[in-house]
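so ive been stuck on this for like two days lol. basically i have the seq below and the ligand is zinc ion, smiles is in there too. i just want the complex predicted, nothing fancy, no docking runs or whatever. if the output looks off dont worry ill sanity check it later, just need somthing to start from for the group meeting slides
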Amino acid sequence: MLRRALGPLTVTAVQDAEGPFFEPRERAFPDATPAQWAAADAFDPAARTADGRWWLRFRSFAIRYADGPVTLVDAGIGPAGAPAKSWAPVPGRLPDALAEAGIAPGDVAAIVLTHLHTDHIGWAMPATTPFPQARVVVPKADLAAFAAVREADLFGPLRAAGRLEVTDGEREIASGVRVLPTPGHTPGHQCVVVSGPEGRLVVTGDLLVHAIQLLHPELGYAHDMDAGRARVSRASVLAAGGELAVSHLGTPFLRTGR
Ligand SMILES: [Zn+2]
């Protein structure tokens, strides 16, 4: 079990799936040098296959205050037929991973989506979700940016059920848990900051997607919608220090240099 405690708050890593990226990693990070790749591979060897491909984990984080309700950050690639099916290894196993962590579907009171890419929304899709009672927290700028593709199957049904919660700036979601706008990867991308007496932990979403961006935060990712803003957001979170909980790297929890 991969879990961190900050006082009464626990943060549990739950893995939905793992699999290869859909294109050569050199295309995803076009400015990375061979030396930078070598350093990243030494730092996170589990993210590279023997034949040099990028191997990703698809991870969510369950945040719980004592035995209270759970806030789930991101909803994975999802079940068979989910929107990520065109490129990711659906079905994922997030409900089983939560059960192994002692979390029942009814314990999940809120799902925070860091952004609206398909590998982060799978188990939140209203037609198939195992969490039909949970409110779903979506950043306002992504609501606009993804309306054309997600209004009919995500936003509309959530709104009709009274389960859509829109954020626009920093906001407390649960005790000790707040969202922090970190735009760039998508216009509304948000991290989740967990604060306790023993420090702070940031669930990073896709603020960084590979160890190469932890070692070289200036490196642009080809799938950032605005690479310049993403760079500023990344530098700001890393400068603040503390522990990180990451979506796609080989290990779920990392420390920044500070
Ligand atoms: Zn992602």
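The pocket of zinc ion is lined by residues 117, 119-120, 206, 247-248 (CB under 6 Å). The mean pLDDT is 96.
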